[in-house]
TrEMBL record:
Name this polypeptide is given: Integrase
UniProt keyword Zinc, yes or no: no
Gene3D superfamilies: 1.10.150.130, Integrase, DNA-binding domain (3.30.160.390), Intergrase catalytic core (1.10.443.10)
Organism of origin: Hyphomicrobium facile
InterPro entries, A to Z: DNA_brk_join_enz, Integrase-like_cat_sf, Integrase_DNA-bd_sf, Integrase_DNA_bind_dom, Integrase_recombinase_N, Phage_int_M, Phage_Integrase
The entry's keywords: DNA integration, DNA recombination, DNA-binding
Domain Integrase DNA-binding positions: 43-123
Pfam families: Arm-DNA-bind_3, Phage_int_M
Gene Ontology BP terms: DNA integration; DNA recombination
Similarity remark: Belongs to the 'phage' integrase family.
Length: 411
């Protein structure tokens, strides 16, 4: 019926309605851009150019022309993102035409529907997608404040400079795919497995940052690249632990060595408390409560960032008193014997382990603590007191057992 009526209208009536004729009108419509054809009641270029009265004028689909009291005008797109309204600036009306504003708005709405932050999407459209190297340096700058180890801060970026930047450093982060990740990893994956794993982890972190910032979308190619890499066959090599039967000889050697007295005290104090070398070397005397036999390490000095309370055994307390007496005017409990203004160096503690199977100080006596913990039943009466003094009952059991074991084998 509709088709019959459509063709029954005389051509001269079409000309009267459309002016230049139906065919010429359809031709002009097809020449318009998609953004122009979508609107019938939106703004016009003349309106945008001439409007000076302050206000907000809608073009449709969330696009507004905002005119300030000064007469300056700008484009603002209003979109919904994660249930919240976001206003995204698209530029001034003097430099961005109506058609350009509509096209920009259309692109940002598409990205918002895909789950990307429209503000970040606008920044990407305006500034372009940053290169991988720029993103890497941004991530490094943001994270390095949380890393206490200065060596780790430098190495994190250095590995990328050596192994990642030459291949993908100047690529836009949204252009990096599985092939590019494989290309940079394959030369070192088998030759330097540990380094390769670190590079992979850091590249993955940077790409995740790019996704979170709206610079790219989709799966992280690093997770897919693992499927194309050969499996590492190297086994983890743990640090050696000193057999407990060798402890007496080792401690006798320690006490009779030519090392400075403060170094020998610090080493034994470290082992008794199962502490990290940095916790012992940098410990100020103010952390030790000699009356309560407690060592309170603030969170700022702990790897986990939480305060740690260590109950000191009688031998550990004697060591702390002896160290305090050696340098009564120094704030550190274990200062350097050559320069008491500075802490004891890591090298001095490691020197003993270097002479005995190259063990780390805080891992060398792992078996000593294991054996000591097995003897806890003989000292169960003391356990409640120790448990109440430390956040970790496990640490308490170890400390009780190792003190008694220490006294039995070392004297």
């Amino acid at each position: 019926m509709g088709a019959v009526l459509f063709y029954a209208i005389p051509n001269e009536l079409w000309d009267e309605v459309w002016g230049n004729g139906f065919d010429s009108h359809m031709s002009s419509e097809l020449k318009k851009s998609p953004s122009d054809r979508r609107r019938t009641n939106g703004l016009s270029a003349v309106f945008v150019r001439q409007k000076k009265a302050p206000g907000r004028y809608g073009d449709g689909n969330g696009l507004y022309l905002v005119v300030d009291r000064s007469g300056a005008s700008r484009w603002v797109l209003r979109v919904m993102y994660e249930g919240r309204r976001r206003d995204v600036g698209l530029g001034g009306a003097s430099t961005v035409t109506l058609a350009e504003a509509r096209d920009k708005a259309h692109e940002i709405r598409k990205l918002a529907k895909l789950g990307q932050d429209p503000v970040a999407a606008r920044r990407t459209i305006r500034d372009g997608v940053p290169k991988f190297e720029n993103c890497a340096r941004t991530v490094h700058k943001a994270r390095k404040a949380a890393w206490r180890n200065g060596k780790h801060q430098a190495q994190w970026l250095k590995t990328l400079e050596l192994y990642a930047f030459p291949t993908i450093g100047q690529m836009a982060i949204n252009r990096i795919g599985t092939a590019e990740v494989l290309k940079l990893l394959l030369p070192i994956w088998s030759a330097k497995p540990e380094t390769a794993r670190r590079v992979l982890q850091r590249v993955s972190t940077i790409i995740d940052y790019g996704t979170a910032a709206g610079m790219r979308s989709g799966e992280n190619p690093c997770r897919l690249a693992i499927l194309g890499l050969p499996k590492h066959t190297d086994e983890t090599e743990h640090f050696a632990a000193l057999p407990y039967v060798e402890v007496p000889a080792f401690i006798a050697k320690l006490r009779n060595s030519n090392a400075a007295e403060i170094t020998k005290l610090a080493f034994e104090f470290l082992v008794l408390n199962a502490s990290r070398s940095g916790e012992v070397r940098l410990a100020p005397k103010s952390e030790i409560d000699f009356a309560k036999a407690l060592w309170t390490i603030p969170g700022a000095r702990m790897k986990g960032g939480r305060e740690h309370i260590v109950p000191l055994t009688p031998r550990a307390l004697d060591i702390a008193r002896a160290a305090r007496a050696l340098y009564p005017d120094r704030p550190l409990l274990f200062p350097s014997p050559t320069n008491p203004e500075k802490p004891l160096s890591t090298w001095r503690l490691r020197s003993f382990c270097a002479a005995s199977r190259s063990m780390r100080p805080h891992t060398a006596f792992a078996l000593v603590f294991a054996i000591g913990a097995a003897r806890k039943r003989a000292f169960r009466a003391r356990l409640p007191k120790w448990r109440s003094l430390t956040p970790s009952s496990r640490k308490s059991k170890l400390l009780i057992g190792v003190e008694c074991f220490w006294e039995s084998v070392v004297g």
